[in-house]
DNA sequence: GTTGTCACCTAGGTTGACTAGGTATAGCGT
DNA sequence: ACGCTATACCTAGTCAACCTAGGTGACAAC
């Protein structure tokens, strides 16, 4: 998948993942790949700065640990982070429905 | 709606509109506003360069006309443009479903 | 004759993801 | 021993795309 279309949605993806338990940066990349069967496979140069930005914004906190001789920075979602995740989910929902209205033809099944 | 989250999807929106008949730039803006009840309301500085880009790419063609003493540049979709629209719709569909898988909780109704 | 709508344009700024480098440890194969 | 791959982190600078902020000009209404 072309990755530039993620623009503006990356924060939601990261918050949604870290919301499901502490993840370190590298593991976030793997988890994104796992949840999407490889469709979303982002480089470290995208993920690390984004996590730093979210931490600076107070939506995540991090702590260092060492596992098998390797340093890890693990991220946990904060209370404002959870709130932001809820808002961004809502935003995404609105956005997706709005695009659908413009381009017609629902992209996803509307029947079970 | 914050407009920066449109990044990468604008071309699809424009192709989808012009696909439904010739539109001039200003009318595209109005049509976007109309189809979304004002949710998507983009400035001319976004639309005009985007239409120029699509024309340079061969996905649209344009012709000048004059209506009520005002110059209009009307855009029509080309055959490659229709193909691109189909591809971008598919891309959008994939993207939307993929994001949904990552963030969980479907954003749109899955039952009628 | 000023204000509002229609209708076009572009140079330059901002933002956000990516490229392309770098550091360092562990494990595997040869 | 040496190289290669995987794990795990980092950042400076680039690039693409959208927006800001200006500009031109015609028409209609007050």
Strand order of the largest sheet of chain A: 1-3-2
Low-pLDDT residue intervals, each spanning 5 or more residues of chain A: none
Q: What number is the mean pLDDT of chain A? A: 91
Q: How are helices and strands ordered from N to C of chain A?
A: HEHHEEH
Domains counted in the coordinates of chain A: how many?
A: 1
Shape of chain A: globular
Q: Give me the number of helical elements of chain A.
A: 4
Q: Kindly name the structural category of chain A.
A: alpha+beta
The CATH class of chain A, by name, is Mainly Alpha
Q: Predict the CATH topology of chain A.
A: Arc Repressor Mutant, subunit A
How is the biggest beta sheet of chain A arranged?
3 strands, antiparallel
CATH superfamily of chain A: Winged helix-like DNA-binding domain superfamily/Winged helix DNA-binding domain
Computed over alpha carbons, the radius of gyration of chain A is 16 Å
CATH architecture of chain A: Orthogonal Bundle
User: How many DSSP E strands of chain A?
Assistant: 3
Span between termini of chain A: 26 Å
Largest interface: A-B, 39 and 39 residues
The level of helicity of chain A is 40-55%
Strand content of chain A: 15-25%
Oligomer: homodimer
């Amino acid at each position: 998948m072309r990755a530039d279309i993620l623009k503006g949605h990356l924060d939601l993806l990261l918050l949604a993942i870290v919301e499901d338990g502490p993840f370190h940066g590298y593991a976030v990349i793997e988890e994104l790949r796992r949840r999407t069967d490889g469709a979303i496979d982002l480089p470290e140069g995208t993920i690390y700065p984004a996590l730093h930005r979210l931490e600076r914004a107070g939506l995540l906190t991090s702590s260092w640990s060492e596992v098998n001789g390797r340093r890890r920075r693990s991220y946990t979602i904060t209370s404002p982070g959870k709130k932001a995740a809820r808002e961004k989910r809502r935003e995404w929902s609105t956005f997706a429905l709005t695009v659908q209205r413009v381009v017609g033809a629902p992209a996803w099944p509307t029947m079970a």
